[in-house]
């Protein structure tokens, strides 16, 4: 089935690893032209070389999402390199763990820049450049709907992404730009592997036991795979989702308990 992705011009942020990398890979597999971005050049080049084995339609631009100028330059340079922009798949790095007593003022401001302000700039700049419609997909977290203990920066700052998605869907909808979000649950990425390893060491447990503990509230009883998040990004960019705008889709194996 033709999903309408072939030849689309796509920028994927935080794409050297994990969820962002999986999204970039799926777009390439569907025949899109993809620019990947992240802030560590070594990781970025490694990812670029791996993705090149799938398709030559990939390029990279280094950008630190903490730096508003970098974000702006990424969208504009990506647009120039691709010769247009159809899809922005926006992922970020993770904020520091901690709670309201352990986190510093700087930690809160950093999270504001990383999670929210960078997204505002990326959406604004992409929205201006997408002259013949497009798709903006913001990957966030289930913490928008269900706080996770000791991830207060995510629990608090990420909520504003729900507002951004809603207002952008209203303000960009008339230009034919659809803006939606994904809320991944616990997903098996390098970052989660590290969290599991650290916790196993700290608690003197086997890694499998830690994973069992993490997924005890997930009805499907397992971690998600990055490809399972990427598939939803593909759906949201495809011609199967032409009337979906301003929503956030959980991809969490049923972990969110709330009905709404
Ligand atoms: N995995 C999960 O279970 C899960 C669940 C819900 C939400 N999330 C969220 O989804 C996002 C991706 O998570 P992940 O598990 O895929 O993480 P990951 O495997 O650690 O990958 C993180 C990516 O973010 C990039 N990055 C970090 N800081 C950056 C910055 N300042 N500027 C540009 N790029 C930056 C990293 O690139 P470089 O270091 O190479 O620059 C890397 O490509 C995070 O925001 C995470 O909180 C993850």
Automatic annotation (TrEMBL):
Keyword rRNA processing: no
Signal peptide: none
SUPFAM superfamilies: NAD(P)-binding Rossmann-fold domains
Coiled-coil regions listed in the entry: none
Gene3D superfamilies: NAD(P)-binding Rossmann-like Domain
A Pfam family the protein falls into: adh_short_C2
InterPro entries (UniProt xref): NAD(P)-bd_dom_sf, SDR_fam
GO molecular function term, any single one: oxidoreductase activity
Keyword terms, alphabetized: Oxidoreductase
Family: Belongs to the short-chain dehydrogenases/reductases (SDR) family.
Protein name: Short-chain dehydrogenase
Native organism: Saccharolobus caldissimus
């Amino acid at each position: 089935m033709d999903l309408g992705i072939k030849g689309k011009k796509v920028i994927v942020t935080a794409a050297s690893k994990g969820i962002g990398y999986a999204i970039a890979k799926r777009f390439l597999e569907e025949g899109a032209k993809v620019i990947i971005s992240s802030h560590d050049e070594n990781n970025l080049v490694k990812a670029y070389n791996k993705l090149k084995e799938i398709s030559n339609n990939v390029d990279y631009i280094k950008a630190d999402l903490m730096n508003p100028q970098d974000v702006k330059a990424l969208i504009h340079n990506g647009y120039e390199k691709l010769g247009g922009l159809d899809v922005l798949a926006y992922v970020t790095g993770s904020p520091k763990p901690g709670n309201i007593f352990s986190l510093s003022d700087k930690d809160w401001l950093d999270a504001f820049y990383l999670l929210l302000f960078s997204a505002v700039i990326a959406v604004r700049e992409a929205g201006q450049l997408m002259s013949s419609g497009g798709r903006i997909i913001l990957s966030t977290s289930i913490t928008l709907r269900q706080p996770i203990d000791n991830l207060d920066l995510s629990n608090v700052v990420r909520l504003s992404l729900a507002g951004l998605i809603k207002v952008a869907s209203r303000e960009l909808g008339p230009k034919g730009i659809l803006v939606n979000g994904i809320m991944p649950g616990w997903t098996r990425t390098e970052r989660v592997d590290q969290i599991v390893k650290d916790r196993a060491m700290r608690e003197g447990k086997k890694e499998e036991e830690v994973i069992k503990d993490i997924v005890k509230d997930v009805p499907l009883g397992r971690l998600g795979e990055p490809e399972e998040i990427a598939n939803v990004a593909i759906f949201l960019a495809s011609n199967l989702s032409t009337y979906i705008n301003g929503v956030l889709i959980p991809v969490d194996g049923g972990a969110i308990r709330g009905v709404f």
